[in-house]
Amino acid sequence: MSPDSGRPRSLFEKVWDAHLVKAETAETPAMLYVDLHLVHEVTSPQAFSVLAERGLKVRRPDRTLATIDHSTPTLDFAPGETPPYATEAARKQVETLQANVAEHGITLHGWDSDYRGVVHVIGPELGATQPGMTIVCGDSHTATHGAFGALAFGIGTTEVGHVLATQCLLQRKPKSMRITLEGPAAPGVSAKDIILAIIAEIGVDGGTGCVIEYAGEAIEALDMEGRMTVCNMSIEAGARAGMIAADEKTFAWLKGRERVPAEGPGWDEQVAQWSHFRSDPGAIFDHEVVIDATRIRPMVTWGTAPDTGIAVDAPVPDARSASHAKALGYMQFEAGKPVSGAKVDQVFIGSCTNSRITDLRAAAAIMSGRKVAPGVRALVVPGSVAVRKQAEAEGLDRIFTEAGAEWRQPGCSMCIAMNGDKGEPGQLIVSTSNRNFEGRQGPGARTVLASPATAAAAAIAGHVIDPATLMEPAHA
Amino acid sequence: MPDRFETLTSRTFVIDQEDIDTDQIIPARFLTTTSREGLGDLAFHDWRYDGDGKPLDTVSLNALDTQTHRILVAGRNFGCGSSREHAPWALHDFGFRAVISSEIADIFRSNAAKNGLLPILAPAEAHAWLMENPDVEITVDLASQRVDLGNGPSFDFKIEPFARHCLMEGTDPLGFLTSNEDAISAYETQTA
């Protein structure tokens, strides 16, 4: 059966169907073949231990790719020196991964690699992430790779062990949801604002049990980095995965990358094959959501769940539940007043959501020729060594450091605050990351999620502010 | 390998909060461990301890007898957030064997069932009753997929059949996967 014959299928169904090793039955889930397994230091050690206990090998080291990102310091250190790990446990965890990949013959983009970085940044950079693939990682933000028309799941450590040993994942077929963004987004509205608006609309559990396909004019208009930002936060609406159809932008972005065919007949054939990975006209979804993209404004969150996004200058809503009231108390925000104007202690620009070159350019455009407000600490953490080098080639690092921000080595950093980069109790952090849970960025720290432009503007102003006010160049 | 799960009669412990995320269940800074053992002390860590790491007397979780209270009841959308399996490891090691909510996040639910922590989705009426009647003795029967609430609205619950099988047998699904080696090889040959 050719990929396009029979009844109309969604992008998700096409990828799902192409990877069935064994169809699901009443008793057992489907066995889904995994094309690419991304591994990092935090969620893999216990899985490798199970393999050792049972005498199993990694079935496909060639389909497994490792990096170090979560527990790794972002401070500079000299070649040959031990990296300045925050704790002994962090050092041991990284060394455990180094030993495991060596034993099983897995490629690791470690300290000496030009491709080291946040796992969801380097997969696409290498061209390891491709349309139509199934991709898994022991990390809930694996949905990022769906921006390329891949089906990408975050999995638990037990499942990491399953995939290492058998290259298969046991899954019941999720339901499907299409979210269509109608109309263009306004100038100055970024991918981050779009996904925060989507999550605010459908809720923190609105996508539970579903694979979301994002579609419509405002999605098609996004560059690949923006599409990654959108898919990245699918889990923040509870979804299993998020996807966007592959198109000419996808192919152009992948062209010339390490793991894709070189330009020529091989490349053309590959693109022709990838072009199938889009939903057929008439494909049926279990749920359809339509959102007017023209109404989306720069967004910030007021609460301790990612669905509490509002326009930066809109009033914080009245608490709808005891949980909302608790969140308002924790965040020290008042219903009826906007988040804009709130005094900022730290700004974090980074994470698998917003640490790519276009994110850094957006932040630099605001910071250029300006200074970080007194008393504010601003951390800029590129997503990978490659992003860092690109940013330095463009002079963005100088813009950040001259403004008074810290220019760091790549890693997850303050998004998850397990490497020593963190907020202090009570501090307000405007962050381009994905989660504003209580204590996520350090015990007692308060997180406002925002786009790179809004975060950069907060660093300059010293309080939360509509980035439009700083979008004119400083020395125009 | 978790113990076999058949029936469980125990008292409930209620946390009246929605959207309890995995960073509440076990904060990320404790994820540098390379083990899955002994994480119970870290369960709900930042709720239970002060800034110096001293247990807070005012927090009922710190006085909970987990021999008698093995069933956690929580508000809607329990376990949202990250994929960290450390969350069910911590809850299981703390002493819980089942968690009941009106909605449980996908990845947490999948992880819990693989670690001897039975995730139970309760219908709205039963969930509301459990939230309003804390510390009651109830019985969970996995074979019949029924929760007996005594005076309350007892209910049947759904669970993915293979997850139920693995919980009842105390096995991990890895054996099933490795027994399908032929199918995996055939797929690899066909798509190579």
Task: Report what the structure shows.
The complex is a heterodimer of chains A (476) and B (192). Chain A has 476 residues and is of the alpha/beta class. Helix content of chain A is 30%, strand content 16%. Chain A has 15 helices and 19 strands. In chain A, the strands form 5 sheets. A 5-stranded parallel beta sheet of chain A has the order 5-4-3-6-7. A 5-stranded parallel beta sheet of chain A has the order 17-16-15-18-19, covered by helices on one side. Chain B is an alpha/beta fold and 192 residues long. Chain B has helices spanning 22-25, 45-48, 86-94, 106-113, 124-132, 161-169, 174-178, 181-191, and strands at 7-15, 69-74, 98-101, 118-121, 137-141, 146-148, 155-156. The longest helix of chain B is centred in the C-terminal third of the chain and has 11 residues, at 181-191. Chain B has 8 helices and 7 strands; from the N terminus they run E-H-H-E-H-E-H-E-H-E-E-E-H-H-H. Helix content of chain B is 31%, strand content 17%. The mean pLDDT of chain B is 96. Chain B has a 7-stranded mixed beta sheet with strand order 4-3-2-1-5-6-7. The chains are: A alpha/beta (476), B alpha/beta (192). Chains A and B meet through helix 2, helix 3, helix 5 and helix 11 of A and helix 4, helix 6, helix 7 and helix 8 of B.
